Amino acid sequence: MDLNEILLVIAALFPAIALCIYVFKKDRAEKEPFGLLLLLLVLGAVICFPAGEIEAALLNVIPNFFVNWGLGTVKEGTMYLGSDFTYILYNVAENFIGIALVEEGLKFLVLYLVTRNNKNFNSLFDGIIYSVFVSLGFAALENVLYVTKYGWMNAVMRGVLSVPGHMFFAVLMGYYYTMWNLYKKANQFEIQFKANGLILQNAPEFVYKNQLTLSLVMPILAHGFYDFCCSVDYSLATVGLYAFVIFLYIHCFKRIKNMSKMDGDNNTLAFGLVLNKYPSLIEHFNRAAQNGGAY
């Protein structure tokens, strides 16, 4: 490996490392174990390989669907589509299913399997930092593969767009993932209070499972739209891409800042959500405190 290749690797890794450090510093309530974050980072990089295999298989299958339904033809490895509608539909299938679903699905799988029952997953910001480390592990290796192949201009463009893009998708995933954890704990408090007769048995409980669904769906939609805008040959799509990237920069950095500012123990925050939902509990616990702390 010559000096230029070494510098390209460094340039490829730098954006991911810088963003990891930035997010790590925003974790205020309790710093996550280095070993756990390193594991998430490494697994994020490892899934690049199955992602590439699955994407290649899907991107070979998707054209067959269009050919079999008479929506297009393949000649010498090139897909020809009959109308603007089928062109858009084809790119939607490729980017939302063939790429975004695969990559975000594998990231989510790592996130969920490694952290869902981890004792360290106990603070508001944890879902975001876990998700970001998985995603930036993926982005770092992907970036090295692209940049060492296509050179310095690619390093600059991906450093501004693609690597931050992966982090932004992770912020969307991590936000809903941490809300799932928070609402699940609030639901557990509700069940406990119902068992002790402190709230009505038929009171509607916190819904938390939809947050887990959103933690997968939202990054897929964002990633798919990003890649779709990169793929289609329309000037409006180019405008949409840059507008979307600007929106993600503003929205996701603001979300990181706000979640960091509100960071705290999830049990305490969940208990606060329950008290806010059932104000009568506050009076009950005040009386209990005056009587020695018993329910």
Summarize the structure.
With 295 residues, the protein is an all-alpha fold. 78% of the residues lie in helices and 3% in strands.
Your description of this structure?
It is a single chain. The protein is mainly α. The model has no long low-confidence stretch (mean pLDDT 92). The protein is globular, with a radius of gyration of 23 Å. The protein has helices spanning 3-26, 34-46, 48-68, 84-115, 126-150, 152-160, 162-195, 209-231, 235-261, 266-277, 280-290, and strands spanning 72-75, 78-81. A two-stranded antiparallel ribbon has the order 1-2. The protein is built from 11 helices and 2 strands. Helix 5 (126-150) runs antiparallel to helix 6, helix 7 runs antiparallel to helix 8 and helix 7 (162-195) packs across helix 9 (235-261).
Task: Walk me through the topology.
Blueprint: H1 3-26, H2 34-46, H3 48-68, E1 72-75, E2 78-81, H4 84-115, H5 126-150, H6 152-160, H7 162-195, H8 209-231, H9 235-261, H10 266-277, H11 280-290
Antiparallel strand pairs: 1-2
Helix pairs in contact: 1-5, 1-6, 2-5, 3-4, 4-5, 4-8, 5-6, 5-7, 6-7, 7-8, 7-9, 7-10, 8-9
Amount of beta strand = under 5%
Distance between the termini: 69 Å
Poorly predicted spans: none
Biggest sheet: strand arrangement: 1-2
Number of beta-strand segments: 2
Q: Describe the main β-sheet briefly.
A: 2 strands, antiparallel
Given the structure, what is the number of helices? 11
- What is Rg? 23 Å
What's the SSE pattern? HHHEEHHHHHHHH
Structural class: mainly alpha
Mean of residue pLDDT values: 92
What is the global morphology? Answer: globular
Portion in helices? over 70%
